[in-house]
Amino acid sequence: MILADLVSIILRLAELAFAAIVAGLNGDYLHSVTGTSSWHLGRFIYTEVVAGLAILLAIIWLFPFSGSFIHWPVDFVISVAWFVAFGLLVDWLDDSCGDVFDWDGINFNGTASCAQWKAVIAFSFLSAICWLVSAILGIYWVRRHTAPAAGGYHRRRWYRSRV
User: Fold this and answer.
1) Contact of 85 with 122, CB cutoff 8 Å
2) Residue 71 to residue 142: CA distance in whole angstroms
3) Which among 99, 108, 98, 89 is positioned nearest to 46, based on CA atoms?
4) Within 13 A of 35's CA, how many CA atoms are on the CB side?
5) What is the pLDDT tens value at each position of the chain, 163 positions in all?
6) Max CA-CA distance within the chain?
7) pTM of the predicted protein model
8) How far apart are alpha carbons 31 and 160 in whole angstroms?
């Protein structure tokens, strides 16, 4: 299962990178609107908390141990949290910068607020997909390495060969 370990490491690195990008861009916005009511910034604070939690968990689970695959329920919960953040940000953008995934006409001169928000939305979606794939990989790994409870199957001992 070297391939599963390699895919898991690549996914964790992508999760870490995407969460760091979202945390940085979203944190920049939160810093620029200091003094605003936290009630109006709820979706951004939620996104920042999800990004921070994703960074922490991606760093912890980056190490390639087979035990990291058993955390698939948490991977699924984080994926759902990212999808919620994505939905909240898309709802907030509300076509004020054009369609959400329309990247035509975005310029990166001094004030690139539309480009910044579209990047946050895109990386939130990518992070949600990566966490979901990690959960699916974890389910696959756990199903493959555990025996059914009542089916007459038993787990192969580590010292027995297949031949």
Assistant:
1) no
2) 10
3) 89
4) 1
5) 578 778 888 998 999 999 999 999 999 888 888 877 777 888 899 999 999 999 999 998 887 665 666 788 899 999 999 999 999 988 887 666 767 666 665 555 555 577 788 889 999 999 999 999 999 988 887 887 775 555 555 555 666 666 5
6) 69
7) 0.80
8) 59
